[in-house]
Structure formats: structure tokens, C-alpha cells
């Protein structure tokens, strides 16, 4: 029976899983739209929502929190360009759109994008 278990494991160890999600969210904030598998897309969207909520605060602690995930250039971009776009929005900063399966291995694919 599953209780209080959140998140997907992706058949990886903890440090590898965190690095994977961190790189996916970093790519999402840089490019604002990425294509990946459906499960990774859903987990990426969850983490990106939490980080965007922090970034919207715009204070020093939010800046330091984001700095634990990303380099200072990306933190500056998130705080100055991306977060102000969502100032009036209470949530739902990302959209996951499902695509047709990948031809090579029939993995379910999806696009994660930041709402304009």
C-alpha cells in the first residue's frame, strides 16, 4: 500500500534523479519549451511550479533558494524576466501537452512549456 510517497524514481538513484530534474528545469527556464517523456515532463512541471512560486517573491531568500539549483546568470534571468510575467498569476505557470509516442521505443512523449 502506497502512503506518503511522492514523485517518480525513473530507475535512478537519488543524486542522479535530482541532477536529471535539475537539468530539465534549467532547460525549461532557458528555452521556455522542452520535449521529453511524459513522466519526466510531469515531474519537471511540478518542480518548475515550486521554483517559480519562490521566484515570484523576489526577495533575497528566494534568490538564494534559486541559487542552490541554478547558476547566477540563470537566477538573474528568472528573477528579472520570467517571474514578473507571472506576478498576477496564482499558479499554473507550466503546461504539459501530450504528443504521439516516440517511434524508436514507443515511449510516451510530451512538451512542457511556460505559459506566455
Layout of secondary structure:
Layout: H1 14-31, E1 33-37, H2 38-57, H3 60-67, H4 72-85, E2 94-98, E3 109-114
Antiparallel strand pairs: 1-3, 2-3
Helix pairs in contact: 1-2, 2-3, 2-4
Explain the overall architecture:
- The protein has 116 residues and is an alpha+beta fold.
- It has a single domain, classed as Ribosomal protein L17 (50s Ribosomal Protein L17, Chain: A, Alpha-Beta Complex).
- It is built from 4 helices and 3 strands, in the order αβαααββ.
- A 3-stranded antiparallel β-sheet has the order 1-3-2, with helices on one face.
- Helix 2 (38-57) runs antiparallel to helix 3 and helix 2 (38-57) packs across helix 4 (72-85).
- The protein is globular and about 45 Å long.
- 21% of the residues are buried.
Strand content: 5-15%
Helix count equals: 4
Rounded to the nearest angstrom, the distance between the terminal CA atoms is 40 Å
CATH homologous superfamily (4th level) name: Ribosomal protein L17
Compute the average pLDDT.
95
CATH class: Alpha Beta
